[in-house]
Amino acid sequence: MRLVSLRQVRPGMKLGRTVFTEDGKVLLGSGMVLTERLISGLVRSQIDSIYIDDPRTEGIEVEDVIRPQTRQIAVETIEKTFRQITNSNKLARKISLIEMGLHFQRAFSSILDDLLQNKQMIGHLATISSHSPSMYHHSVNVAVLATAVGMSLGYNRQRLMELGIGAMLHDIGKLHLPEEMLKKQDRWSEEEREIAKQHTMHGFNLLRKQHDISLLSAHVCLQHHERLDGSGYPQGLHGKQIHEYAQIVGIADIYDSLTSPRPWRKRYMPQDALEFLLGSGGHLFEHTLVNAFIKHIAVFPIGSSVVLNTGEVGVVSRVDPDYSHRPTVRIIKDGRGNDVHHPFDLDLKTNIKLFIVGFEDDELFRMSDVTGSNPA
């Protein structure tokens, strides 16, 4: 199995992993043979990449740390709740708010149970990407990433629930933004960005009124854009004024935003996003929280096609969490760009003269440095 940009997909290729719509429904199931019509459907759904199966990558499995059905339920819970909150029917909206906490407790409990059962996979969480740009999938990704950090910090189940539910709901205040802003395909203007900053307060005011949602979860919504040096919003808090949950979600939010595509840009490479976060330690976020986050991320995700310093091209087949920058690579092209008849695995931990210089597929990634205090 390997990851390819949609521009490289051709009819006859076999889909390696299920593709979901932005609202959590199955768009295409794993194992389907792709046709022109199906590929066109992926383009219309703004999917920028998919996993395919081919004989050269046989045995390379890209597993999500949460089950597909867990992700589907979580995304559908967020989508349904968000839709009901904006419902013009006041009675329907009131009922949905009463039941909100229960729905999110159930959805996040499934995420947490999956993570607790798959602790051995938490060392390469870059494989969680759903390749959908939707806010619903982003919220689930942020919840998974944030919870992994909470687990590494030794949080008990109650604290993990508070953190995870806050992460799932961190962007709920965006429901109060003008519809034309949410649907806009271009980057927001400065004026629109100022309007968007109000989403943290909108979300907090909504969540703090829910009797079965922790006030700490509500503070995640309020503070996830606050920064240690006071440069964040909405209150310009400093240091310990910012709750640890909010800092963790802020880190996860930036990482998933940078490594996901946007209508106006390609995704950033994982190592670029990680370098940005490393540079933010001590002034945007606590060093200990940044380090706790980074140790769970694979710099080169399983299934990604990479280029070695020899010019050879390979697919990452295994990742050792302790040496994520030196994975095992399945070589599929030689240094001249010719297909290798018998692909073979190279463990870069033992082949110390070899190293990865980049990704093969320049259609997937934005090839520039991540700069600015809010590059996402």
Automatic annotation (TrEMBL):
Residues 113-309 form the HD-GYP domain. The keyword Hydrolase applies. GO terms for molecular function: hydrolase activity. Gene3D superfamilies: Hypothetical protein af1432. Keywords: Hydrolase. Its EC number is 3.1.4.-. It is an enzyme of class 3 (hydrolase). PANTHER family: CYCLIC DI-GMP PHOSPHODIESTERASE PA4108 (PTHR43155:SF2), CYCLIC DI-GMP PHOSPHODIESTERASE PA4108-RELATED (PTHR43155). This is HD-GYP domain-containing protein. It comes from Brevibacillus brevis.
